Amino acid sequence: MKKAKKACLILGAGAGLGASLARAFAREGLVVCLTRRLRHRAALDALVDEIEAAGGSARAFGVDARVEDDMVALVDQIEAEVGPLEVVVFNIGANVFFPVTETTVRVYSKVWEMAALAGFVSGREAARVMTPRGRGTVLFTGATASLRGSAGFSAFAGAKHGLRALAQSMARELGPSGVHVAHVVIDGAIAGEFTQANMPDYEARLARSEILQPDEIAANYVWLWKQPKSAWTHEMDIRPWTEKW
Predict the structure, then answer these.
(1) What is the DSSP letter of 212?
(2) What is the CATH number of the domain that holds 159?
(3) How many other CB atoms are there within 10 angstroms of residue 203's CB atom?
(4) Would 243 be classed as within a structural domain?
(5) What is the spatial distance between Cα 203 and Cα 234, in angstroms, rounded to a whole number?
């Protein structure tokens, strides 16, 4: 298979922001390599078909980003079969609500594994192939919980705080090697089926632009990737105009 000039790996290419990120980077000419766990493979294949029908290039991989050996193999496969990784986007959420007295060790551990440990493995593997080339971009999706822990979100806040700290450490370490690391705080509800099902006034708020549009969020990720070295952004907050700080 002929190698492409640029490849983009999106971990957590779900139906909302993940899909918008995939479409956005595909429009930039990158081969987007999309991952979700195996049970979501059909939806992932459908997204690949959509991107290719629009003239882009995409590949699907059923990978659990928490599994170290699988992530090492995935990055090696992309480098060998697709092309050098230009962008890695870690977009796995793991948002759950449990009162702290009902938060089991199993729940806390699983959320941490999905939103923090998987971020570390993904970031480390990106650094492994990007630093020798002296270029690359690693983008982490954060949340309101990255900055403040709300009632009922002890597991999610712990994991997202850890991911933010990882991004800060990586940015300081990898920046001098030419690798741009950025953390994006998504502070607000994102338009989509989940928000619609859980927000009674969804349509009215959507009409007033009080809910984040995933395509507009994705445009900011592309902008971060395109930033020149002389003016890198490390952390970006994205929120609708009515969201409380």
Answers:
(1) B
(2) 3.40.50.720
(3) 11
(4) no
(5) 33
